[in-house]
Amino acid sequence: MNKTVVTAEPGKQDLFITRTFDAPRELVFKAYTDATLIPQWWGPAMYTTVVDKMDARPGGSWRFYQRDAEGHEFAFHGVYHEVKRPERTVDTFEYEGMPGHVMLEIATLEEQNGKTKLTVHSVYLSVEDRDGMIASGMESGMSESHDRLEQLLAKTVPSSKSREKA
Predict the structure, then answer these.
(1) For residue 162, is pLDDT > 70?
(2) With b meaning 16 or more CB within 10 Å and e meaning fewer, what string describes 40-49?
(3) Is the link from the previous residue into 86 a cis peptide, with omega within 30 of 0?
(4) Looking at the chain, which terminus has fewer C-beta neighbours within 10 angstroms, N or C?
């Protein structure tokens, strides 16, 4: 299984997240923009993710919330600025528990021999916001989300070994 890599240079207000998925770009893009697929992979498995709204088009908005076993809810929302199928999305991301700390996310998907390299460039309002997000456990949560996405994609796409035999 591939690993999610988070790169954050000290003193900068952005970070990069990369992961290669063993699936075609079109399918990875769909998993990122289809409201029926988001709950199957977005966030740690200990939470139930609900898509409250998702209009994946320029000017459209999204809002997801997660519920833990005790019924506590944690919500996130944003606005899509660009949706260029199947190669790129640009949107904002804000955790409703800390209003005013908005980040810009640019997700780029590159096709590489039947696999997809995902690069997410996240730009925060300040270095402190970025460092706070890292300190919150974002890295492990993102890795778990990507692991869950990899599992979802594997159910849909035959493995590269079985594709080679065909």
Answers:
(1) no
(2) ebbbbeebeb
(3) yes
(4) C
